UniProtKB/TrEMBL annotation:
Catalytic activity, EC: 3.6.5.n1
Protein residues bound to GTP: 29-34, 150-153
CDD domains: EF4_II, EF4_III, LepA, lepA_C
Superkingdom of origin organism: Bacteria
Function: Required for accurate and efficient protein synthesis under certain stress conditions. May act as a fidelity factor of the translation reaction, by catalyzing a one-codon backward translocation of tRNAs on improperly translocated ribosomes. Back-translocation proceeds from a post-translocation (POST) complex to a pre-translocation (PRE) complex, thus giving elongation factor G a second chance to translocate the tRNAs correctly. Binds to ribosomes in a GTP-dependent manner.
Record localization: Cell membrane
Name of the encoding gene: lepA
Name assigned to this protein: Elongation factor 4
Family per record: Belongs to the TRAFAC class translation factor GTPase superfamily. Classic translation factor GTPase family. LepA subfamily.
Pfam families: EFG_C (PF00679), GTP_EFTU (PF00009), GTP_EFTU_D2 (PF03144), LepA_C (PF06421)
């Protein structure tokens, strides 16, 4: 603990001039959580005995993967000497944010609750794509930026080189870039001093009707909804009746306080403070992120500007393996929506999988994390169908259909145009990999927008690409082709017309909607061959031959057959005339034909899961 850590650890900072609100933004794996750990230790808010790595990462899945998924707010005390040499106690409200592109909505909400941001860059790797994306987000919010190089204790660190790169990017001198080590604590005290000096104090009207912005909320099974707010005007006190301005719902504040970093009740929240409210409400829909909280007795006239709603980039169907778990899945999604405001979902049904939900995600990692949380936190076994994006289909009679699921693709009508969503992708990588990156992007129908060198050996390549080409395995291929050095960031950039077709998978002439996909015409054949081959391995043999076909409309483009299980009807023939054997085989053939007319192919649940998740390799590929 530093000698300047303040005791008691939670100051009653009612004077906005003594409050500093800031967040840490960086690329994934650049040491945000480690730096936050050192700040908690140095300010004395967490004792050495209670300290553990990634202290603010509360979920098991965050700790296992070493990534931050949810931003966490914490209040820390820090004393700084004024001109007369007397120590003044400040309250620092810090928000630790995620670094992955799929959780950028968490970052944008955190930025709106702050006046400044620490831009953290790994001194051994330099600026990455997500660092740039978060920096632009912070500049749009008019935040004070403090550039910091982390991990300067590493042997591979090049602080001088990357300090120049950072200074060129945001303006200023390389000497202004702070150099710290989150691991050893070197330079962290000086950084806390810089936060107090450079980041402006919050501004608000203490006498106006209270207004607080909800920037996050979580569900506690004992206490109900816990709402995290940033006070803008006025003051909120315990036992006061409050009103949510968008839903007009009123509640009584049972507890109000700050995270330090455990929830610590206080006597109220004033201008500029960041804290939490507990009203005992169990209905998760009554605490909407971006809503304004005011008092019921003297409500504010105007709500605060909320957050722009996140646009789902990837859609996937979520179905319970046991159909009776459908109500539990609905309740689990409602609770998850509270702690993950970017998740959107609506009910849907599938012929093959029964009742479920069509859910929208910000990316593939987001989809993976949500399904993993449903399994762990709610004990649900679910199937997630293959991810797809939103298409706009116009038929020749000028009707427009929005397609989030291949089964919604119009059939029987002539298609005039299909429009697909596009994204602007920014890829940062060492210059040696420019050729392989361009080759990969062009194979995914990308259009080069430009290239820019950020230093002697690093280049930013910008492409316009269809989102559908990115959501499957683009990032994996990018990492493997660049030895893990490339980083990717993307943002929506409108849509374009494309030659897209729906590939149907038919089992014995009947369409199975769960396996359908919308792909570019050039890749339709490859998808058909892949899916038919995969299903041939997964579906058990029947008493009759089962054809598996891939079709575009009425045209078959690929076929595999599952051979029939046959009884050896010739076992009882010991020699004798060939006509006897022929007669038995013909009889069996007639029986198989009759069976094929009445038989139905049962696709086991495991085959659906394996075919849709792509976990299986065909036996042929294993032989190779």
């Amino acid at each position: 603990m530093s000698p300047r850590a303040v005791n008691p650890p939670v100051p009653a900072a009612t004077d906005p001039a003594l409050i500093r609100n800031f967040c840490i933004i960086a690329h994934i794996d650049h040491g945000k959580s480690t730096l936050a750990d050192r700040m908690l230790q140095i300010t004395g808010i967490v004792s050495d005995r209670d300290m553990r790595a990634q202290y603010l990462d509360r979920m098991d899945i965050e700790r296992e993967r070493g990534i931050t998924i949810k931003s966490q707010a914490v209040r820390m005390p820090w004393a700084v000497a004024d001109e007369s040499g007397r120590d003044v106690a400040y309250a620092l409200n810090m928000i630790d944010t995620p670094g992955h592109v799929d959780f950028s909505y968490e970052v944008s909400r955190s930025l709106a609750a702050c006046e400044g941001a620490i831009l953290l860059v790994d001194a051994a790797q330099g600026i990455e794509a997500q660092t740039l994306a978060n920096l632009y987000l912070a500049l749009e919010n008019d935040l004070e930026i403090i550039p910091v190089l982390n991990k300067i204790d590493l042997p591979a660190a090049e602080p001088e080189k990357y300090a120049r790169e950072l200074a060129d990017l945001i303006g200023g001198s390389p000497d202004d870039v702070m150099k710290v080590s989150g691991k050893t604590g070197l330079g962290v005290e000086a950084l806390l001093d810089r936060v107090v000096q450079r980041i402006p104090a919050p501004v608000g009207d203490a006498d106006a009707p209270p207004r607080a912005m909800i920037f996050d909320s979580v569900y506690d099974s004992y206490r109900g909804v816990v709402t995290y707010v940033r006070m803008v005007d006025g003051q909120l006190n315990p036992r006061e009746r409050i009103q949510m301005m968008s839903t007009k719902a009123t509640h009584e504040i049972l507890e109000i306080g700050v995270s330090a970093p455990e929830p610590t009740p206080s006597k109220g929240l004033g201008v500029g403070e960041v804290g939490y409210l507990i009203t005992g409400v169990k209905d998760v829909r009554q605490s909407k992120v971006g809503d304004t909280v005011t008092t019921a007795v003297k409500p504010a006239a105007d709500a605060l500007d909320g957050y722009t709603e996140p646009l789902p980039m990837v859609f996937s169907g979520l179905y319970p393996i046991d159909g009776s778990d459908y109500p539990e899945l609905r309740e689990a999604l409602d609770k998850l929506k509270l702690s993950d405001a970017a998740l959107v979902y609506e009910p849907e049904t599938s012929v093959a999988l029964g009742f479920g939900f069509r859910a929208g995600f910000l990316g593939l990692l987001h989809l993976e994390i949500v399904t993993e949380r449903l399994r762990r936190e709610f004990g649900l076994d679910i199937i997630a169908t293959a991810p797809s994006v939103v298409y706009e289909v116009t038929t020749e009679d000028k009707k427009t259909v929005t397609v989030t699921n291949p089964s919604e693709f119009p059939t029987g009508a002539k298609i005039a145009e299909v429009r697909e969503p596009m994204v602007k992708a920014a890829i940062l990588a060492p210059k040696d990999y420019v050729g392989t990156i361009m080759e990969l992007c062009q194979s995914r129908r990308g259009t080069l927008l430009g290239m820019e060198y950020l230093g002697e050996d690093r280049v930013e390549i910008r492409y316009d690409m269809p989102l559908g080409e990115i959501v499957f395995d683009f990032f994996d291929h990018l990492k493997s082709k660049t030895a893990g050095y490339a980083s990717l960031d993307y943002e929506p950039s409108g849509d374009q017309a494309a030659d897209l077709v729906k590939v149907d998978i038919l089992l014995q002439g009947e369409q199975v909607d769960a396996f359908s996909a919308i792909v570019h015409r050039d890749k339709a054949y490859a998808y058909g061959v892949l899916m038919t081959g995969r299903l041939r391995e997964l579906i058990p043999r029947q008493q009759f031959e089962v054809p598996i076909q891939a079709a575009i409309g009425a045209r078959i483009i690929a076929r595999e057959s599952i051979r029939a299980m046959r009884k050896d009807v010739l076992a009882k023939c010991y020699g004798g005339d060939i006509s006897r054997k022929r007669k038995l085989l013909e009889k069996q053939k007639e029986g198989k034909k009759r069976m094929k007319m009445v038989g139905r192919v049962e696709v086991p649940q495991e085959a659906f899961i394996a075919a849709l998740s792509g976990d299986t390799e065909s036996k042929d590929s294993k032989k190779k």
